[in-house]
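Appendix B. Raw example, untouched.
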Amino acid sequence: MRSNALDDLRAELSARKKLPYLVLDLVNIRYLTGFAGSYAALVIDHGESWLVSDSRYEEYARSILPDGVRFALQKKDLNGTLRKLLKRISASRLYLEEHGLPISSYFAMKKDLAPVTLSPGGDAVNVRRMCKSPEELQIIEKAVALADACFAHLCTLIKPGVKEWDIAIEIEYYYRKKGCRRSAFDSIVAAGAGSSMPHYSTSMTRKIREGEMVMIDMGCEYQGYNSDLTRTVFVRSVAPEFRKIYGVVRSAQEKAIRAIRPGMLSGAIDKVARDAIADRGFGWAFGHSLGHGVGLEVHELPALKARGKVPLAPNMVLTVEPGIYIPGKGGVRIEDVVAVTESGCRIYTKSSKEIIVL
């Protein structure tokens, strides 16, 4: 939960005349109220807000909700509870957070809440989450440090004959032992030709072989915030082709990081890396976007993608992760987490980007 986030959002929505406002995204509800359960809705109005949930969470919710947020017990269905709340505040219109509501739920809500009109309310919470508070930045930096430490640990374990799955399990175990609730996502450990697939599914049986590269993409969730790290290492030796590719990827990544500063459009940063790779003849082998925001979710706004129109701003936290993937042979990706500053960016990730031969 970010302090004052709910008050700031209410003021924004009031100025835009978009109250009452319904939030259904559980991550956004956690950001605004601290509630971390698996079921809730949040109604924000001028004077008060209401967190709606069922009896499983009543005691917990009442114990953690901030001032100005009341608990509303859902005894039957959500729409019935919302109908009562909206009647209590004499609302004729309800503004909806615009993502995450299935069309079937929308039509049911439209029917059950009539004559209240449902209107699009934008994604104000997701936009606010792009810029982190000093407290959020500290936690994310710690999460990144844990990923760095985990990578250093893995470098002592990777050798011929070790299974990809064993490395993936070690990642999970390491994070849990260090106080993390979970990995940020299913870790990717891709050896040899498997590393040509950006979102490779780690094999339970595939053993690492001498002369292969191993791409590791991993992160942890620490105190609710995420990290994301990718490094590509080599076992015993490096093929000349991939030594060259590694240098191209590293150079492109470092150029993109140097270009990051407030006011730059997200798409412009993507273009820096994409052009650097294309200029070396590998444009066809870099298909995904350059990066994404990191915070309460490991993938959040803004997206560093081609033609992205989001201006970068101080305290945004981003990944920068170009890659080159040669089908049937292998791939290289290098990923750091950076925070935008007033004049450029600060690199949180400390793991070496020199070629590592294990």
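End of appendix B.
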